[in-house]
Amino acid sequence: MKKVVSMLLVLIMVGSLAACGNAGSSTTSDKPAEESEGTTAAKETETKESESSGEQVKISFALWDEVQKPVFDDIIAKFETENPDIDVEVQLTPWDQYWTKLDAAMGANQAADVFWMNTFLPKYVDAGVLEPLDSYIEKDNVDMSAYMETVAAALKYDDVQYCMPKGMDTVQVFYNKAIFEKYGVAEPQTGWTWEDMVAIAEQLKAKIDEASSDEYPILMELDAQPSFLNFIPQEGGYMLSEDRKTTGIGLPGSIKSYQDVVDLIDNKLMPGSEVLSDTKGTDLFLSQKGAMLFMGSWKVPVLDEVSFAADIGTIAMPNKGESNVSVLGGLGFAMNANSEEKEAAWKLVQYLAGEESNKLQAEAKIDVPALLSAQQYYKTEYIDTNVIFEAAKTGYPFPTSLSIADWFGIANEISASIYAKEVTPEEGCQKMQEQIQALLDAE
Prior knowledge:
Blueprint: H1 4-8, H2 40-52, E1 57-63, H3 69-82, E2 86-92, H4 95-107, E3 114-117, H5 121-126, H6 134-139, H7 149-154, E4 156-157, E5 160-161, E6 163-165, E7 167-168, E8 171-176, H8 177-183, H9 194-210, E9 216-220, H10 228-234, H11 252-266, H12 273-276, H13 281-286, E10 290-296, H14 300-303, E11 312-315, E12 327-328, E13 332-335, H15 342-352, H16 355-363, E14 368-369, H17 386-394, E15 396-397, H18 404-419, H19 425-441
Parallel strand pairs: 1-2, 1-3, 9-10, 12-15
Antiparallel strand pairs: 3-13, 4-5, 6-13, 7-14, 8-10, 8-11
């Protein structure tokens, strides 16, 4: 395994190094039942005796979101009811400590049997600590077409499925209908373009200035997923090529995607980074200080509960250059390659990615299901969520590679300097091109 030691240290952060439960230390037998010799009848007898005597296989499941944990406690309780021979320990580790703990636990062979995985997947595949799932999927005839194709594909590496899909998120525009009505400006319409958006924003600005008011026509959070990871491919550029070997951040389309946002700031159609670095675009929108907001679907539950939720409209991002494609994020359920209870771990992975689990997650609005049949359960009182599912159909996977922990930081840092007008879009993109390509060449 190339770079195993170095890659396991890439994301080490300050935080707790408390050990995860050892997947193998709590087992009650040396071998799974199916490895014992004897007849089917004998094995069934052994299973019944094991259940009656209270013996259980013990496995662990790790996640990082305290908001989602209560829902997963319920999901795990249902799983244990259906699988009385399996006892699952749920391990919650906050995001800022999760990867540190996972890396340390993996190094000590004490990591959870099942755990959440995201765009850092290539690193853990390269380290050999993720169990390939293709043989399990084939054995149990799991239909992967039941999931949003882009999400399932993003959880593959070198054409091997390493995670079962959990949820997904897209980026779209939310707008405050009351502000449009207040200033007598027509709301954005389906099929709108970036030029249409600028024209609408200019109308709003003129009316806002005339009223000596303080709303912003456009808001966005200038982090990667809500902004530039969408705009770059929309203009024909790319952060990573499909084979993950090159970056196109220096292409003319990529440069233009940054220049267009800088132009919005220069023309006072949206606040500059000096404002957005102190107050997030979403917070300004929640304070009714913005007419339009570029934001991810993960904010829908928050928007659906505000006092003016009934006045919030949703629409796909405007067509920009070549498309209005959304970067598609999402998590997956991974299995520890070193787990000593892989049969039980796979049962849990299947259940977590299955109908009942997705239904509970959707009803609680903690995630938009990647499982197509469960998307019907994701319902809100006010916010129209159809745009999420439509955007997902044409979305592209969040870009990732072995060196993502390094190049992603570079992209965020230099992008911030572009939006702060410390460097021009051309200068910033050229810096990113050189630095990111060097990292990709070294993989």
